[in-house]
């Protein structure tokens, strides 16, 4: 590992971040969750439209950890009216606490503490009841959570934590990705940024301010699904033009919308901390037979476990390069299911131009296409993917490639 940060930089780093780079854990947690950082996309408000070169040399594991923390800090500083850190040091919507399974007594107790309550809509398909509690003016989110947990013991409370897209499109490249295999009719849902007009979708809707709004990342994911044969796409934009986009509630609402559309496969190329609302939504959808896949993130192998990839209901996907080597920046999950191409591939950006892309985000649509193809053929998804997967690394499942490589020729 390269030399550590200078002492001045260490001021303000939290326990989770310090643990990632092998330093003693002291002081409050800052940015403890997993946020994909390759190319600076965490700081969406500071570099939203920049043409980023993701084919540049990949940063070291220590640099990935430092970058993640710095970008979270910049995001919060740039948007203090919309974003603050929760009691775990995770970026979240300012002043908002989510309460599940509410009752009249709980609401009365919250109101006596000065909180206002608003019933959450858009979760009916999943059968989830939730309330947004807004903290009194001037009360930090960490304090709000502490007070509510004391007043409502046994209740499920959380901040509306933010999740982040992975890497964006990079420099121009010749040609586009080639279509692999026969057309796939099973519909796939995308929860990401907005999809540009270069990739046709059946329907697109937004779950954030200014959404749907075309993004390079969402368009690349949708284009890779199309190139892998999927013909029916539903796109949920959970970012729009909102610096506080990508919250757990927005994602849960997007899952609820896809449940109403009877989508059988969901592709999620985003990363954030664990959240009880999102965990319940995913478990409910998975229990109904929907296959959900998510990226392990790009914060490196020493990062905390990535969510939603780490939820039991989700297939965790990592990426490999053109020589089938694990991406050095690939994060980790509590389990790893499959690998797919995540580098040395091309995809469309929001304007329809072909770009080279890199990151575990772009492996997810490849694997999702294969899951959809299994459903198309009337075959069990897990068994079919296991049979298709090409074993890489040491024999059998491992923590670098999972149960093997899917869609090895996709995007190349």
Q: Compute the separation of the termini in Å.
A: 32 Å
**Rg computed from alpha carbons, rounded to a whole number of angstroms:** 20 Å
The total strand number stands at: 16
Task: List unreliable stretches of 5+ residues.
Answer: 1-57
Q: What name does the CATH topology of the largest domain carry?
A: Rossmann fold
Can you tell me the number of structural domains?
3
State the name of the first-level CATH class of the largest domain.
Alpha Beta
Characterization of the model:
The chain is α/β, with parallel strands linked by helices. The protein has 3 domains: 7-85, no CATH class; 91-161, Alpha-Beta Plaits (2-Layer Sandwich), CATH 3.30.70; 164-388, Peptidase S8/S53 domain (Rossmann fold, 3-Layer(aba) Sandwich), CATH 3.40.50.200. It has helices at residues 7-10, 15-20, 61-78, 104-112, 141-151, 216-227, 248-260, 276-287, 363-376, 381-388; strands spanning 83-85, 91-100, 116-119, 130-134, 157-161, 164-165, 188-192, 203-206, 233-237, 265-268, 270-271, 291-295, 315-320, 338-341, 345-348, 354-357. Strands 8-9-7-10-12-13-14 form a 7-stranded parallel beta sheet, sandwiched between helices. Helix 6 (216-227) packs parallel to helix 9, helix 7 (248-260) runs parallel beside helix 8 and helix 9 (363-376) packs across helix 10. The chain is globular and about 60 Å long. Mean pLDDT is 85; it is low at 1-57.
């Amino acid at each position: 590992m390269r030399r550590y940060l200078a002492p001045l930089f260490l001021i303000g780093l939290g326990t989770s971040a310090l643990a990632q780079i092998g330093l003693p854990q002291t002081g409050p947690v800052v940015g403890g969750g997993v946020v994909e950082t390759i190319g600076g996309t965490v700081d969406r408000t500071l570099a939203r439209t920049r043409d980023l070169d993701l084919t540049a040399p990949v940063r070291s594991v220590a640099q990935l950890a430092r970058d993640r923390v710095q970008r979270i800090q910049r995001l919060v500083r740039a948007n203090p009216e919309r974003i603050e850190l929760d009691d775990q040091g995770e970026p979240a919507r300012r002043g908002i606490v989510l309460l599940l399974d509410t009752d009249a007594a709980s609401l009365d107790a919250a109101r006596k503490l000065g909180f206002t309550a608003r019933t959450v809509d858009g979760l009916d398909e999943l059968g989830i009841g939730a309330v947004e509690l807004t903290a009194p003016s001037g009360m930090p989110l960490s304090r709000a959570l502490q007070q509510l947990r004391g007043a409502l013991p046994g209740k499920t409370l959380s901040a509306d934590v933010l999740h982040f897209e992975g890497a964006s499109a990079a420099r121009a490249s010749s040609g586009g990705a080639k279509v692999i295999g026969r057309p796939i009719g099973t519909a796939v849902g995308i929860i990401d940024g907005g999809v540009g007009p270069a990739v046709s979708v059946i329907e697109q809707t937004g779950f954030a301010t200014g959404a749907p709004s075309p993004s390079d990342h969402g368009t690349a994911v949708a284009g890779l699904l199309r190139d892998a044969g999927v013909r029916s796409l539903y796109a949920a934009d959970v970012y729009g033009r909102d610096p506080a986009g990508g919250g757990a509630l927005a994602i849960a609402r997007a899952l609820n919308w896809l449940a109403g559309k009877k989508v059988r496969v969901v592709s999620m190329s985003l990363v954030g901390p664990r959240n009880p609302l999102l965990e319940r939504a995913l478990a409910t959808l998975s229990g109904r037979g929907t296959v959900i896949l998510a990226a392990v993130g790009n914060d490196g192998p020493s990062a905390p476990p990535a969510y939603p990839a780490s939820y039991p209901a989700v297939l965790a996907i990592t990426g490999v390069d053109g020589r089938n080597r694990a991406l050095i920046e690939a994060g980790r999950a509590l389990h790893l299911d499959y690998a797919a191409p995540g580098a040395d591939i091309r995809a469309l950006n929001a304007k329809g131009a072909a770009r080279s892309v890199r990151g575990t985000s772009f492996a997810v649509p490849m694997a999702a296409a294969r899951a959809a193809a299994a459903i198309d053929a009337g075959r069990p998804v897990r068994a079919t993917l296991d049979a298709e997967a090409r074993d890489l690394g040491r024999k059998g499942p491992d923590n670098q490639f999972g149960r093997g490589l899917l869609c090895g020729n996709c995007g190349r």
